[in-house]
Structures are given as C-alpha cells and as structure tokens.
C-alpha cells in the first residue's frame, strides 16, 4: 500500500524519455505536470537535452540526483525494460510504463513483458500499455492523455480504475463537461504487476473516494476480486462496474445446454450480483450511477414522485420507471391538498403522477415548496424533478430551488433536463444535484440506489449432504447410467432403469421396469441424444424391440457407427420440466436452474449462482433461484394449478451443488435436463444426466 500511495501521491517524478518538444506525445507529461501545478521535483531524462521546459534534464536514470517516488517511462518496449531496471536499482517505488508491444502483441511481446516484470524486482509497475493515471484530488497527472489539455478538471469523490487506456481520457473529458468530480483515474491495461483489485483495496481507505467505478475487460484473479469487493461493500464504498464483451462472451454449447445458457457474461452477472457490485449497461450510466451514489442517499422503496411542468417529458420518465419496476402512485390526500394550496385558483389535476404543477417551472419559489412537500410525503421514496424549456431561461434559479430543498430530506432527488442543455446539466452536478439528459439514466441510477440500500445478507449455514466418493471418476464424458447413479447417491431421485445391449434384453427390461418406458442410446460421447434419434418414448415390452432396431439405424446414420448399449427407463409423467446444471469457467463453478426440456435454450429463463469457495449452495439460495425464474408461478400453483414439490426441488439443488463442489476443478459441465418437479409431496426425478470431467486439480472424496 505504501508503494501504491507513492504512485498516486508522489513527492518527486522522473519522466524517462521526455521530449524537449512539448507538442510531441513524449513531451506532454512534463507539460501537464507543470500546467496542473505539481509542486514536487520533476526530473526529465533525455541524453539529447540539457533542459526541458525550464527544468534540468538528466542524461540517464543513473544520473538522477535522487531516487524519485515514481518513474514515468515513455520509451519503446525494449528500452523501457532497461529504464525500469535502472529505476528499481536506484530505489524508485513505482514505475508507469506507457509502451505497447508487450503481452497484447503475441508470443514475443509476452516474453518482453516477463522481462519487464523481472527487471522491476520489488518495485511496483503500472501497465505496460497504459495511458497512466491522474490524481485530480492532488493535481498530479502521470499521463500523456490529451484530455489533460482541459484547464479545469473538477475534483470529486468518484475514483475510476480502467483496464483500457483510451477510456481514461474519454471519462476525464466527459466528467469535466458534465460537472462531475473525480478523485482519480487509473489505467491498469496489461497488469503485469498492479491490477484492478490492488487499486480497489487502496481506494477503500482513500478518504477522497466515496465510490469506485471499474471499467473491466476481464477479471484475472476472481478470488482476490471477491475479497476486495466484499471489503468495499462492508466499508460502504459502492463498486460500479462497466464490464464490456457482452456480445462476444459465451461458452460453447458443444457438451451441454448448460454450456450455452451459463455463458461467460451471465456468470459475470451472477458474480457481481452476489457481491453487491452494480453492473451498468451503457457508457453514460458508467458516469451517471457513481455521480448519484456519491451523495450517500438511501432508497427505502420503489415509489417515485415525478414533478414536472411539461407533460411529454413526464410521460417519458414515468414509462421508463414502470418498465424497470418502479411505481409512480398519485399523491395521497394530504399531499395533494398541500400542492393544491400552492396553485391558488389555477385548475390543477393532482390525482396522478407525474405531478404537473405548471407554474412551478416559471416560479422558483413554487418549485421549492412543491419539492419540499413531495419529499415530506410518506407516499414517496424518491423524487425526480423535470426541468423543461421554461426552466432554461433562469437555470441558476431553478438549480438553486432544488438545491435549497435537499437538506429537508435524505431521500434521493434527481433532475431530468428535457431539452438539450449541457450547461444546465453541469450546473446541477456541480451543485450536488444528479442531473440527466435521458429518462433511462434516471431509472438506472434509482436501481443502483436500490441495490446499495439493501443490507448485506448474513451467510446461512450450509446443510450437511452425504456425497459419494468421486475420487476415482474417469476423465471425459460419463455415460448417463453412471452419471445418474452418482446423482442418486447424492440424494437426487432417478427413475428405475436397466442397461441393455440387445433386443431381447430390452424387451425383458421393459417388462421388469413396467410400461411405459423410455429407450435411450447409452454412449458417453453422444450427449444430445434426441437430435440424432437416440430417444424414444411411450414404449412397452411389445414395441421396444422394433424401436431399438430402428434407433440403431438412425443413430448409425448420424454418427457413422452402431451403438453398443441402451438405457431402458421408466417414464416420468405429471412433472414440470426444469434444467439443473453446472458449468465451470474462470470465475468458478456456476449453478444454473431454468426452464427445461428441449426448449431450454429457446426460452432462456434461468437463474445462476456461483458456488462459494467451500461447499455448495444453501437452501435459502436454492429458493431464491427458484423464485427468480419467470416460470416460478407455474411451480407455485399458478391460477389454481397444483403446487409442485418446491421443497424437494430446493433440496435437489443443494445436493447437486454440493456434488459439483466436491468435483472441484475436475468439473467441466454437468446437467440434469429434464428434472421433473412432481406435485407437492411427491419429490423430483432426474430424467436425464450429463457429466463431463477434466483432469483438473480438485480433490474428490466423501463429504458429509
């Protein structure tokens, strides 16, 4: 932490490779340090110059008069390695390496990046391939970003950590234009050493920062991120994440439906939700949401008052709120009477919301009183004030009217500026009034406030589950019969079944199991059996023989070989079909519950949870997953239909997750599809099973 503090608050800075031409990219950092008032020693290093912008220039790192706190390295990839080595030997605390051409450039670049790390020794590195950092609180720009040409960069309480260098400049200029103050901006880029979680940990204790915004391409160390995210939540510092890659992300569907449904991006959603991290969906929201959270106001419920003097804009806001699950109830009688008294003899409809108080837009005193009345009302948890074209004639008076009312309540107050008026938005934000130019942003920030207002859930104890020994399972796909045996030993019911190889065996098995039965091809390498004619329903001892021979030919025509074995299984009827699956990726093991059967990928009605570091899910988490499904009412007795055995389902989810946890890093993917949920009191039955294992590094064994 001391080295990171020296990086963000250096007392002295060496600029390695500084140009004497302030118009060149390598000349900009010295120029910006001077322009923005850095008060400590600045040491330009360039063997071809004696002086740069009035500062003594040194021919090499070794010639510096002292070890600087930070070295800003502007050389190319290979030369930067030598500069970093020299800074480390001198005793420098941290280096910022701007050069590209490292790991992002392929195998040769990866080798150079390893050399860079080795050259640094115990010195910390930001980058490489970074645009640097800017500490606005202290006025310290360690960057060549052209956004620093702006003379006035408002300091505030939002810190930004970005894995993209170019985004830093875009956010810096946008925030300045909107009047949103930032405490610092840090570009981590290749993260050869310092990474996002290191800076989150530092910013948790930074008194200048109230909200931490993260622009992420990936999370390289999920366990470390989980740790610092929980610390940030406990410290009351919200994390707001803009995670890019939604359109590109997704796991392969080759081995299971779960692989397609629990794609990488959905797992990130679950990961962030579990940690109380707010994920925003647009670049505008990446600034809008932190700007609101800085105020620290709590949203007690989802009832919103919309105060407007322009009907059309009010409808836009109300529609956006409704789509996102917020309520806009009309004023209660006492509130309506107070508002009516403001209007005097002017006819006013106060039986609806948005609340159109026409004169308020022209008379700041009326606006001020109307705001206070709505904030005092027990009918509302938040207020959105719409500023129409009439308010632009006197923006300072309108902003003042809203600002004067803030101390009367701790409820969130937002302003929506209906016309194009960037100056008004800037005035609002500088007055600590979150101002927005889109209705969607108002809904997004209220949702973020709702998330941060929820208390941290206490961890429930994990139930004891008796599990089979999984240490001897082979690598690769496990056939359905063996997978079902494993699930049965974990306490998940499966139908009676027999493994057969011939027509005669199939007919005998159908008689023993009892009609009706299902016939399936049994082959660990054929996971999507129904797609190749490998599943037949409603059979009995008289019909199964002919159907087996027909299936043999169908499967052979698809895969080029004759099946060796089949599964004869009792049919399950009267159950609601779900899919219960698990998929392992870089963030951990995701447990998925969703609408099942052959339409699972079509409807994509799913709930996802990540397994904790140890053990499976709790019964409470299992119930939350069930109730998150759009189709939950079908399980809970929708329109008088019989309720399903949801308690048995919850226990099956718990048992399945515990088994997946026992498999650890060996798990690739697994699923039960369909999992039939029978009427209340009759349990659940796993009618199909997929399990694919890798060599992995997890440990298996019996768990209790």
UniProtKB/TrEMBL annotation:
It comes from the Bacteria. SUPFAM superfamilies: Glutathione synthetase ATP-binding domain-like (SSF56059), NAD(P)-binding Rossmann-fold domains (SSF51735), Succinyl-CoA synthetase domains (SSF52210). The keyword Transmembrane helix does not apply. Residues 484-698 form the ATP-grasp domain. GO terms for molecular function: ligase activity. Keywords: ATP-binding, Ligase, Nucleotide-binding. InterPro entries: ATP-grasp, ATP_grasp_subdomain_1, CoA-bd, NAD(P)-bd_dom_sf, Succ_CoA_lig_flav_dom, Succinyl-CoA_synth-like. The keyword Repressor does not apply. Gene3D superfamilies: ATP-grasp fold, A domain, ATP-grasp fold, B domain, NAD(P)-binding Rossmann-like Domain, Succinyl-CoA synthetase domains. This is Acetate--CoA ligase family protein. The lineage of its organism: Bacteria, Pseudomonadati, Pseudomonadota, Gammaproteobacteria, Oceanospirillales.
